[in-house]
Amino acid sequence: MAAAAAREHVERIRRERFYIGRGEKNPLADDIHQAVTYLSEELYSKDAHFLMELIQNAEDNEYPSDVQPALEFAIIKNDITATGAASTLLVFNNERGFSAENIESICRIGKSTKKGNRHLGCIGEKGIGFKSVFLVSSQPHIFRNGYQIKFNEEPSEDCDIGYIVPKWVDEKPNIDDIQAVYGYSKKLPTTTIILPLKSDKILAVKNELSSTHPEILLFLSKIRQLSVREVNDDPKASKISQISISSEVDYRTQKDINAESYTLHLAMQESKSGDKEECTYYMWKQKFVVKPDCRDKKRMEVDKWVITLAFPHGQRLSRGARSPGVYAFLPTEMVTNLPFIIQADFLLASSRESILFDSQCPMESAFEALLKSSSNAPSFALPPIFRFLPRVFCKPSEVTRLDGAFRRILIMAKKQGIDLQNLCSHGTFVMISYLDSKEYNDVLGFLGVGYVKYEWYGKFVDGSNLVKQAPEEIYLELLSFIAENWWLKFSNTSMWDVPLIKYVTGADYPSYCSVNAASMHHMRICIASNKIVKLETQNLYDYAFAATKTIDKASSALAYCHFLYHSHAKKYIAEGSVIKLCHAMPLLDKCGSVIKQRNTLLVPAEGSNWFNLIGMNPWRSQKYIDLSANYISSGTYAGNYIPEGQLTAFLRTYAQAVDVPFMRPPNASFPTVSSPLGMENGLLLLEWIKNIRSSNFSLLQNFLSCIRNVDEEYYGNKVHVYVEELRAIGVQFEFGDANLCIANQPLTMENVLWIRDLRSRGVQLPHNVMRHIRNGSWLKTSIGYSPPSLSFLLPAHSGNLVEIIPEFFDVARIDQEFYEYKRSAYKDELHAIRVQFEFSDASAHVVKYMMSKSSNGALSRSNMLALLQFIRNLSDNNLNCANFVEKIKKGCQFKTYLGNRSPVNSILFSLEWETASVISLLPFIDTLFYGEDIVDYSTELELLGVYVAFKQNYQLLVDNFRLLSDEITPDITILILKCLRYAEIPQNFIKRLKELTWLKTCLGFRAPPGTFLVKDDWKCLLHIIDDIPLLDLNFYGDEIRMYEAELCNVDLIVGFTEASTRIVCRFRKLLGSSYFTKEKVVAMLECYRELSTKHQKLPVDLVKCMQHERWLDTSLGFRSPQEAIIYGSQWEHVSQISNLPFINDDDCSEYGLGKAIDLYRDELMALGAKVELKHGAQFVISGVNIPNDASAIKPEAVISLLKCIRSWRMRGSALPDNFMASINMRWVKTTAGYRHPKNCLLFGPSCSSLLHKEDAPFLDEVFYGQKILSYESELKALGVIVDARAGSALMAQCLKSCSDGDAISRIYSYLEASHWKPRNANDN
């Protein structure tokens, strides 16, 4: 019900029943309030017994077919009702919802909607149960099916009545408050009852909720799940419990005693992580006819008593509470001390706590019938009835046997205390073990007792605790049994999906998987040839070796290492076997990858020597694998603890995990020794070299080349211990080798003079010395000490070098001031050591520098601005920068909003590009990154090839086209059209433009196809059809007409022919609707007149549409002009005998043309409308409709019909059969009355000498006039007899009815003169 209707209903109850708003008081208000108060307080002896009533109400509710009926209680600390409650109880029920009748019932006493419905399954009837909630809540709220109401135990201020007066809830709580409690991930149930609890009742309610008996679901037919949860601020402290019930579908019925038996499974779980408790109940249900003397006036509609006995198989579920013995659908306080439960529809006291003992219930008869039904069973089978009830009901054909091997497994399991409670489930009754023996094979075969189906084994194992609870020996026996019988019995059953296989997860949790899962995830216990789990005996080494081949995950690799460690520690595996397994063992590297092949294994980096000396492992490509830090940590795997560092020590010993200085390096360098080493690392390096040499392992060249620097003072006296090692790495001990180091020291002016002096004396410097001088960082420059080969001494004509080449570019200009401006005197010597003197060399250096900065991405802001300033400086100093600019174009990347781009593919944004930026995704230089200052370098950017001005770069827009805005301005549209005109247009660009909505029309933005650019020569067509998307010329102005060709290229409709074709298509779709009013028809005719005037020849489609489509309203409905008639006087009479399509000329009609028909007569005629009778003969012939009253036909109508027949026959066509059938009636006026045309005669000259016109049915010439004689052939076509001789037979027939002797004489004379004789000679 909608909320508005529900609220109106509540207000009506308040007004009509409680006199609220009526200005008067209900005279029974005080009595009603006292009665409800007394009932609510005295009804129950326990405060929290209202829970039973809420469960009863939920059981009696109706539920949709697609839900599992459920009831959920949630107790929270939040006061969502704003009533000041410390705790609130919410009850959720997924029923169908409230009806108006239910609301009426809640607002009354003793008016239950369930009264008289016991036979329909309702278990409530008193009409007072809901009021019991007032014992724990003073203001219960109900949100249900559109209703949101609350009640108050205090008398209402409006009527002095409490408890039953509903009040609409406007604010708190709202639906969001309720949804927050229930959970946003689930759909809120239809019904929610909210009880803000009284402070002194909170504990009692919690106790009742926590002790709700699980067996409460046994005798409820609808509710299948009951949940209780307590929500706390700390989610970990929240509690939840759940009870659910399921039933077997295999019912057993005993028709002779009107009884049936079945099995119910009850499951209970106290929390999400708690164990699930289960119990099976075997049910016996029997019906007994209620005798007349046993009927109760409260249950007059009940014809049969239904008694149910429930026998628990196993431990009853109780949650620690006392188990009730008697149920009346819900538990009572009755105690029986019987080992089974009794359920019947007992009459109860109002409190539901006790039954009325004077009620008649055949409970003893039910138990007696149960016992008697076993009378045919052997005597030894009677005692177990109370323990294992299904045996009572089974015939031999219903009992099955088990495989002997499986039976032995079950016997062993039972001795171990394993509960096999579902043995007789899944629709199968299993024979007791002491009868299921080979010695009884013959007898059992004779009785028809067979073996269970193979499918049963899988269901039983899946539903039992056999796998989880069985000791190792029984578990292995079970696996062996399944493996041995796999192909014969289980390969085609659900045994594939039963969780049989035990394994330990990576998180050290035991778990189970099915054969299917084991096959898919490589979790097989052992590998068998047929790829099916098969029990094999393997020693630990074989198993461990096989396991190495299946390890692909990091968690598995780590677990395997722990497995080997503990197996070795407990001496399960021999030393030699451990070494072999460790070499085959997959290991986890620092990146978390599983490595199966390696050359050398490095200990974990954390705390290792190799990491302190070398840093990150540089030798991974040489398969030097550094172990994961997980191998250092302590942990517990499969219940075994390992201290920190023990696993690494194990791997050092058995997997040869090594560390510096004991590892052998590969023939590869490592970068860290190219920089200064600390004393400890330096000595460690020497110790490493010493160990390598002592093991007769040659030091590799690549390894040695990176170790070449020793500072004796820094390392102290200890360095002398390693003389041989120092020699090995190239340390020189002779003074003669000292000249090689000259280039490593900064040189003063005197040092340079020394070199010049050597040259002047003709001393040739050794090659090595010269090489070191050229490449040594000794020359003082603007950026520090630099090698001569990378230094510059530029000529004076190059301008102010500091201004031209900023320090930023690291151009090493020789420090003239340092060298006292004497460097120029040593030009030859500087040339010899490769100092550079040309400005082009400095530019090349700048290019190289800029390229290095752009190699891994775009230029930084500082680099970009320095580059542009450098180009500006070159230009300002009149230096040629063309070569420099060309290299920068090819080698540098600029940062744009679309990523990094070369200069020639970048754009500097300005207002010229604003419109272009809307239709294309363009690489504008990122001014946020480079700063707004970059705009000041537009000239320099243009030199580098950057697009600065737009300069009609339409092709660039087409190549990068992407419409980036929904707001299309006229400028944007014109720009797109210019692109179409001036750029080379690919087909996909045209296709995109046809698909996009970028043209503004009178109907909003549209794509070009179907849009019109109106032109004066066909503008009138627009008056015919509404809602034509016309290009909005007010929006674009006349400029857009300059681009008609481009618009046509994207399928915009411009030309007369195309426009008329599209409008004709729209026109045809509207045919047959009420669209063609008088105004539209006039517009059509006006359009035809205008187009005919402007165009000598109209498009064929347009003309055909106007001529042949039905758009004119006529007296016979809508017709085409060629099927219509313009009414005139000559049509007046013939319309009496023919239904004709006259064009509607009614001024008052919505579709009538009125006076406009005269204005557009010429156009209608040009389109084919008929004006003259001779042109409309076909309409008269096809529409002929002779009236039943022939006297109403005027002679002019007949003459007009004959004219039409003449016009019709002039076409050479015979009159249609349907026309001839339509005129075959008495309508032609003769001297003898109205006759069929074929029974009429034309009074010709041959008749006048012998007959009078009254002697026979001659055509009445007086009525029709002499003119009718001119239509002799037309009359003949109608069937009229125009030849006197042909009418002799008709004349002879007239003798029969003629009484005038003179007339008879004249007729005989005429017949004699005509030589007529009857066909039958005997005819008188």
Mean of all residue-level pLDDT scores: 79
Gap between N and C termini: 90 Å
User: Structural class from helices and strands?
Assistant: alpha+beta
Number of helices: 51
Low-confidence stretches: 374-393, 522-535, 734-744
Biggest sheet details? 15 strands, mixed
Number of strands: 39
Alpha carbon gyration radius: 56 Å
**Helical content, roughly?**
25-40%
Per DSSP, what share of the residues sits in E-state strands of 2 or more residues? Answer: 5-15%
Oligomeric state of the chains present here: single chain
Shape: extended
Fold blueprint:
Layout: H1 3-16, H2 29-42, H3 50-60, E1 70-76, E2 88-93, H4 100-106, E3 141-144, E4 147-150, E5 167-168, H5 175-182, E6 191-196, H6 202-210, E7 225-230, E8 239-247, E9 252-254, E10 259-269, E11 276-289, E12 304-313, E13 326-328, E14 330-331, E15 341-343, H7 363-372, E16 399-401, H8 404-415, E17 429-430, H9 441-447, E18 450-451, H10 454-463, H11 466-469, H12 472-484, H13 486-490, E19 501-504, E20 510-513, H14 515-521, H15 540-548, H16 554-569, H17 575-584, E21 587-588, E22 594-595, E23 600-602, H18 609-614, E24 624-626, E25 635-637, E26 640-642, H19 646-654, E27 657-658, H20 679-694, H21 701-704, H22 712-715, H23 723-728, H24 749-760, H25 767-775, E28 779-781, E29 784-786, E30 791-792, H26 801-804, E31 812-813, H27 827-832, H28 839-854, H29 861-876, H30 882-891, E32 894-896, E33 899-901, H31 916-919, H32 927-930, H33 938-943, H34 954-959, H35 970-982, H36 987-995, E34 999-1001, E35 1004-1006, H37 1033-1036, H38 1044-1049, H39 1056-1069, H40 1078-1094, H41 1100-1108, E36 1112-1114, E37 1117-1119, H42 1156-1159, H43 1161-1166, ...
Parallel strand pairs: 1-7, 13-15, 16-17, 16-18, 23-24, 23-27, 30-31
Antiparallel strand pairs: 1-2, 2-6, 3-4, 3-6, 4-5, 7-8, 8-10, 9-10, 10-11, 11-12, 12-15, 13-14, 19-20, 21-22, 25-26, 28-29, 32-33, 34-35, 36-37, 38-39
